[in-house]
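Subject: design request, 999 residues
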């Protein structure tokens, strides 16, 4: 650098940077896991056959010698890693309620998978079975699938060396069977060929002699065909286990490394699935928890990188990995995962002398079970502290008695650096009140929150079990309301080792709760010994909103808690019951509220990657992303996230890259749904949920009419895509999709609009609000339709009747069409259904249903559900008037248009944008209003000042910029002033402005 005299400065110190591992080829290590006793095992399976092929398959065991055979048992499989047919149909998805109730599917998974319909069992002395005796013949008629029950045959004692089971009619997976559940019904229209397939599978084959001994254990198995990968294999048929089973779900893996020199720099690249923690010389590296983020693991897995030079010694070092199940290993209750925990680590070392060395996971590592006897996202953990291996990640540790690790299959997905904000403990909350109960005290934290508790236990005896049970609400009798967690146990159990003081907190699970009941605590519990830890993706809060209505202030706080609690590497529907998925619908409803309150740029960048991973080549998505529950293809009113989320990221954060990256994906998505439409309308049966959980025009939980919503949302995405195409300069696409949107609008209005009555569909709040909000109403009818909506709302006593789809359009479109007072009434009125009702019932987060309070115990009833947090968007957009109508990309364009509603004295919001602060605060004065705004740098704003009558003046620093219905003198920064409908519209540049409005 040179100064003004041309004198050069000293050289700056050299800066350096390094990158993550670029590409798969840079990974030198292997994925390793702990697989004692055969590891993950489904059992034996034959290859797939297209159905109707008259296929037979057999499997046989060689007992080694001739033996007396008295009994044969066939043990059904219950595969644990979600097999799919060759056409990609997940097997578990084809089980109907009916099949489930027949117990062919157990509560834990698809039991009875591959069990033959018809079969025979033969015994022979000859491996080719040229001569054999058929001891069991079940080939004459179809036999009932036994689910998980073993099928046992007692024989007249027979001598033989080989036992063969021949399936003459294989188990069938038929995606076209409409009785095969909602998933199959959808397959009927997705326009893909998904054939029926057959296979033959068994978890175990037992051959017993007269003493009951299993002669088949560990003997040679041959088969007509056999799948030898993952948890399938011939040997697993006779490994002495008779059920499909998983390897330990929380192993510790370790190795010792003598570095033999001083380390200058070192980076550890690490991925442990489902969750993993890295330790060096006993020290935990990084502060992430529940890491890495959840992805479609067979498409993409995220790894973390740490600078670890400080933790490494010149001599002996130990590396330790502690793994948990996470979403990757979950295999319970209809959920099939990817397999047992596994990890990969690569440590890149640069010595002081400039030489380098790489240490990575390989077969030389050792492994042992951790003290976690059980860990599950829904159920909680059981931690037996007596099983702790003290110092296991330190160099002096003696790992005699530990087993070797096994090199295991990679999860399948690309290893990609994790850029999304990791999950962390971000706050702690103390106990507010202790409620005495016979079984153990219930601790009330005063806030429905997401995470877990840390507890200190004094003077326990070794083996004492202390249980922490979680719930969001209490029943009338004061006990925990557990029904609404459905099958989630949400219980952490600590087994004490008997030290004077012991401290425990879980590591591979999380809960949504306000109350924790502590059962089995020795002596009296001091509430100061229990602290709740708030756990979520560490998205940065960037904004604040407040106003003079206390109920609304509380709602905003509830929304902040609700949004935080539901960002867990994907934005979940809810954090407590057996669900917690990235439901697409919930996301498009609440993502603008998330983008207002938090920096969600990287968070959603990752989720859009998840979309790309899940999206089929035909363009459709899944209801939940990564796929967990719901249907494939998705409900067309749910999966619009493919288009809307990149659009919000572009507007709020100026991220044009996300539009580019997902442009073709958006096109495929829109085109797919376009192809499904008939005369421009997407028929009812394509939608699953409609205006879910509303109060009007309901069929159970589904708000009708679905075809109206399906088509309106398709119009919206088509229209948005045309805008996105224009932003990216793709004029042809912009024109093409605009034309298509116009055609959809015509078809929509043809089908649903009664121009005479200015009514849409059944004339419900949602059926008016949705077309109005998306701009579907023909010119000349807009005001009349808006008036009809207002009239409808007033006839409903100013209360909303809408559910998931209609509520956001309702309150926003009322404001956009000059009915802010009506919108305010809807938001602030205190009765059910409405937000303030929740607040006054003591809610500290948003309920799933407007009447959740009356449905405790109903099962599907969350008290911390994402969608209705959308009200926070309305606070920023409507009351404070901070709007991203255009983008913050390049030179930003924003709008400040506060709705100065009668009931409020003031409202204020401020937020940090990519261009700096954006804020607005208005307050009533004796004769008017003050409005203070802050416009970010490199940004132009349109400021809309409510203006009442000709005599009003608008002043800045006592100088009138608007007076007597005309422009006054414009100070620096104010470029233009015009009068609109009951407003003065100013165009201003970056900076702070204080307006005085006098009436
Ligand atoms: C979830 C929702 C989701 C819905 C689909 C529910 O079980 O919790 O929030 O959008 O299913 O209707």
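Subject: RE: design request

Done. Sequence follows.
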């Amino acid at each position: 650098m040179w100064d003004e005299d041309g004198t050069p400065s000293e050289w700056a110190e050299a800066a350096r940077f390094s990158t993550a591992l670029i590409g798969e080829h840079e990974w030198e290590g292997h994925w390793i896991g702990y697989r004692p006793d055969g590891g993950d095992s489904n059992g034996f399976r034959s290859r797939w056959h297209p159905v109707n092929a008259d296929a037979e398959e057999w499997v046989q065991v060689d007992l080694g010698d001739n033996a007396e055979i008295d009994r044969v048992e066939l043990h059904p499989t219950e595969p644990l890693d979600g097999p799919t047919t060759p056409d990609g149909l997940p097997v578990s998805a084809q089980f109907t309620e009916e099949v489930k109730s027949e117990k062919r599917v157990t509560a834990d998974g698809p039991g009875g998978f591959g069990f033959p319909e018809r079969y025979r069992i033969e015994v022979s002395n000859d491996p080719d079975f040229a001569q054999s005796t058929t001891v069991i013949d079940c080939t004459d008629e179809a036999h009932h699938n036994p689910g998980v029950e073993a099928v046992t045959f007692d024989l007249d004692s027979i001598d033989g060396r080989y036992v063969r089971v021949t399936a003459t009619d294989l188990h069938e997976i038929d995606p076209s069977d409409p009785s095969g559940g909602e998933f199959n019904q959808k397959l009927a229209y997705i326009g893909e060929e998904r054939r029926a397939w057959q296979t033959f599978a068994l978890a175990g084959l037992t051959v017993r002699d007269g003493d009951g001994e299993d002669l088949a254990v560990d003997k040679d198995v041959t088969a007509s065909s056999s799948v030898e990968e993952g948890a399938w294999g011939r040997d697993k048929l006779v490994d002495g286990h008779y059920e499909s089973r998983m390897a330990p779900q929380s192993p510790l893996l370790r190795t010792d490394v003598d570095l033999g020199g001083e380390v200058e720099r070192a980076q550890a690249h690490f991925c442990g699935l489902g969750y993993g923690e890295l330790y060096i010389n006993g020290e935990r590296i990084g502060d992430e928890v529940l890491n890495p983020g959840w992805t479609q693991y067979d498409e993409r897995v995220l790894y973390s990188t740490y600078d670890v030079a400080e933790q490494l010694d010149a001599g002996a070092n130990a590396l330790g990995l502690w793994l948990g199940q996470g979403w990757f290993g979950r295999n319970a209750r209809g959920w099939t995962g990817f397999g047992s925990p596994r990890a990969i680590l690569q440590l890149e070392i640069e010595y002081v002398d400039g030489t380098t060395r790489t240490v990575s996971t390989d077969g030389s590592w050792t492994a042992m079970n951790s003290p976690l006897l059980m860990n599950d996202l829904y159920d909680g953990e059981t931690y037996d502290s007596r099983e702790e291996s003290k110092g296991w990640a330190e160099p002096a540790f003696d790992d005699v008695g530990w087993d070797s690790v096994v090199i295991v299959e990679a999860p399948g997905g690309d290893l990609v650096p994790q850029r999304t904000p990791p999950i962390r403990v971000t706050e702690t909350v103390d106990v507010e009140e202790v409620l005495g109960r016979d079984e153990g005290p219930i601790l009330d934290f005063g806030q429905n929150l997401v995470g877990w508790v840390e507890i200190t236990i004094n003077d326990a005896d070794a083996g004492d079990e202390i249980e922490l049970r979680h719930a969001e609400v209490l029943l009338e009798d004061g006990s925990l309301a557990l029904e609404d967690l459905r099958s989630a146990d949400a219980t952490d159990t600590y087994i004490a080792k008997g030290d004077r003081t012991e401290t425990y907190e879980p590591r591979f699970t999380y809960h949504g709760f306000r109350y924790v009941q502590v059962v089995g605590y020795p002596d009296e519990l001091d509430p100061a010994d229990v602290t709740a830890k708030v756990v979520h993706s560490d998205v940065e809060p960037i904004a604040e909103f407040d106003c003079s209505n206390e109920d609304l202030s509380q709602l905003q706080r509830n929304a902040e808690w609700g949004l935080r609690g539901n960002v867990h590497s994907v934005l979940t529907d809810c954090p407590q019951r057996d669900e917690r998925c990235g439901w697409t619908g919930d996301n498009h409803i609440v993502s603008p509220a998330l983008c207002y309150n938090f920096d969600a740029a990287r968070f959603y960048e990752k989720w859009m990657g998840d979309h790309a991973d899940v999206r089929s080549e035909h363009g459709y998505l899944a209801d939940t992303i990564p796929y967990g529950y719901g249907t494939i293809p998705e409900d067309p009113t749910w999966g619009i996230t493919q288009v809307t989320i990149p659009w919000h990221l572009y507007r709020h954060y100026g991220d044009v890259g996300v539009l580019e990256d997902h442009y073709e994906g958006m096109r495929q998505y829109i085109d797919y749904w376009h192809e499904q439409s008939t005369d421009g309308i997407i028929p009812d049966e394509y939608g699953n949920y409609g205006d879910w959980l509303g109060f009007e025009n309901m069929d159970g939980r589904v708000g009708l009419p679905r075809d109206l919503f399906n088509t309106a949302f398709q119009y919206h995405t088509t229209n948005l895509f045309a805008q996105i195409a224009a932003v990216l300069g793709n004029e042809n696409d912009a024109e093409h999709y605009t034309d298509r949107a116009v055609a959809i609008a015509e078809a929509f209005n043809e089908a649903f609009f009664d121009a005479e009555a200015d009514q849409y569909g059944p004339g419900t709040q949602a059926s008016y609000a949705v077309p109005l909000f998306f701009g579907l109403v023909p010119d000349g009818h807009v005001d009349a339709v808006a008036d009809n909506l207002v009239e409808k709302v007033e006839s409903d006593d100013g209360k909303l009747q809408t559910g998931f789809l209609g509520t956001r359009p309702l309150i926003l479109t009322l404001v956009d069409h000059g009915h802010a007072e009506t919108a305010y009434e809807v938001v602030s009125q205190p009765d059910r259904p409405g937000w303030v009702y929740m607040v006054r019932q003591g809610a500290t987060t948003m309920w799933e249903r407007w009447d959740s309070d009356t449905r405790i115990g109903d099962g599907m009833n969350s008290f911390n559900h994402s969608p209705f947090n959308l009200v926070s968007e309305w606070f920023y957009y409507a009351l404070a008037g901070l709007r991203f109508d255009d983008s913050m990309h390049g030179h930003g364009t924003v709008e400040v248009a506060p709705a100065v509603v009668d009931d409020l004295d003031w409202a204020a919001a401020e937020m940090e944008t990519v261009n700096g602060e954006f804020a607005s605060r208005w307050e009533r004065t004796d004769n008017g209003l003050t409005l203070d705004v802050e416009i970010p740098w490199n940004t132009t704003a349109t400021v809309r000042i409510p203006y009442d009558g000709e005599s009003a003046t608008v002043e800045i620093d006592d100088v009138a910029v608007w007076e007597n219905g005309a422009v006054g003198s414009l100070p620096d920064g104010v470029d233009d002033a015009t009068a609109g409908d009951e407003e003065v519209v100013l165009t201003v540049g970056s900076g702070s402005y204080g307006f005085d409005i006098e009436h």
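The chain is about 20% helix and 30% strand.
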